[in-house]
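Progress against Task 2.4 (sequence-to-structure conversion) is shown through the following example record, which the project officer requested during the mid-term review.
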Amino acid sequence: MLNHTRLRFADASDGAVQLLALDQDAFSDWLKTQPKSVQTWVKAQGFKAASGSVCIVPGEGGSIAMALAGLGDATSRARGRFAMAAVAEKLPAGTYQIASGHPADEMEEHALGWLLSQYAFETYRAQPPHAARLVCPDALDRERIEAIAAGEALTRDLINTPTADMGPDNLEAAARALAESHGAKIDVVVGEALLDQNFPMIHAVGRASATEPRLIDMTWGNAGPTLVLVGKGVCFDTGGLNIKPGASMGLMKKDMGGSATVLGLAHMIMALGLPLKLRVLIPAVENSIDGSAFRPQDILTSRKGLTVEVNNTDAEGRLVLADALALADETPPDLMICMATLTGAARVAVGPDISPFFTDDVPFADALRDGARTARDPVWEMPFHAAYEPLIEPGIADLDNAPKGGFAGSITAALFLRRFVSNTARFAHFDIYGWQPAAAPGRPKGGVGMGARAILAALPKALNL
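Structure tokens generated for the chain above:
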């Protein structure tokens, strides 16, 4: 799934068309500096540098003299990102080079947006390629941007693939392929062996499926600080015996979006050779229904020894994550990050475009906010609000997987997970959506990575790399 040749820059070419990226606020002043013929042509085309707009300026003999790309004004840039992705989709065939003169972070956004605009999900149907290619702007790290784009494409492919072809076994195969491509080690615990090796909640959630549940454990790197990424791998969620209505089940192929995101992020980290030790843990299950399905009111004993009363089988993600988090916590890493499509409450709070995160680690939160701005990957900090701890304590067991009342659902889920990382000083949990509900520049409708680029940008400061 990493064979995305489209998501690469063109080699430098003397024949590349110059592409001028123009701010709408400064466009009039720029146009006055151009020859009269150019002014007349641009005005005739109605080009005013609106965000994502394009104007081709003809040269001699039918050639292209230059292309103009609109970046919009300050308001439009605040409301959206990756204007250059929209430009790339509109340009005619050819190789283009963005004229210099913009700050490095803006040039990186333009370059990455261009590559992301080339993504297409082609597993089941060939998609027409965008014909415009970009030369990597000078002074940018070509390999880094291509690695980020490839990681994002991997995440999108995994989420977009329906569960018939992306069940727990297929997710394992994708992780194995990624590990092989980077020389990483991988170990997988499957089926009844989960009970033998003390992963009881992963087994309980996945045992009703025709495809056995499993825990995927990938490691890479021999030196530096240790980073653990834990990703929710619920490949389909019927809701279990608390079955979802049809309308709520329609997008449940994306309920493994956390695992898809950590695998995409893992590719970025390994491809860039970051000086750290990486561990990726993915509890991969399908929450199905048969005679062996776990039930409401069951009490499960977790790997950590904490007991959990199941008050809703549709709150299964936190159960499988808990066993994986407990495993990682037994040898505490320098930083542990959990990513999951966990609660509808998070979507109500921040919508589909923002990655809410929870952490007690102030330096990491600060680094993450800075990284999110530079990577154009929005995040928002939510609180581990200790006053809500009693809500996840049912009395009959240590923990409740689905507190009654309906308030603060994303917070109570995060508090539940935090109970399983008591030895790890630095922990963050992301409650992501993993889906783009409507096409936007650089982000077609469908599976999408959330938070990975922000984390990648934050790691050097957060781990002193």
